[in-house]
Amino acid sequence: MTFRTGHVGLNVSDLDASKDFYRKVFGFEIVGESAEEGRRYAFLGLDGTLVLTLWQQSEGRFATGLPGLHHLSFQVPDVETVRRAETVIRELGAAFHHDGIVPHGEGASSGGVFFEDPDGIRLEIYAPAGAGDALAPTPGAPTCGFF
């Protein structure tokens, strides 16, 4: 058997704010949604392929101290795409975990930006090459560990 990730579902506290954020940062389109009270959700995708589902089923902020999702990572083709995303993320006022584009670790060429969505869910947008000129923010540990 072979497995590959299908889509990822996230609980959010404000569906409208999350839809707006993910559409602006990632360019997702809405491929399905419900505005029915108590059953609000949005299916987001690219080119007709479902990528992310948002479910308005939570309150508060993402709890990093509890078991569950550590972070959600998206690969893009090149570091220029990461730079464009970084500009949008900064315009939206999202929290960053490191300053700008950083490599995945010491000596790595891959890297990207590490930030949070409106509910504090940790996100990463990275490219497989082009980030090696910057210093790794945490020597001896992977950057995507959000240390």
From TrEMBL:
Keywords: Lyase, Metal-binding. InterPro entries: Fosfomycin_Res_Enzymes, Glyas_Bleomycin-R_OHBP_Dase, Glyas_Fos-R_dOase_dom, Glyoxalase_1_CS, VOC_core. Residues 4-128 form the VOC domain. One of its GO terms (molecular function) is metal ion binding. Gene3D superfamilies: 2,3-Dihydroxybiphenyl 1,2-Dioxygenase, domain 1. PANTHER family: LYASE, PUTATIVE-RELATED-RELATED (PTHR36113), SLL5075 PROTEIN (PTHR36113:SF3). This is Lactoylglutathione lyase. It comes from Planobispora longispora.
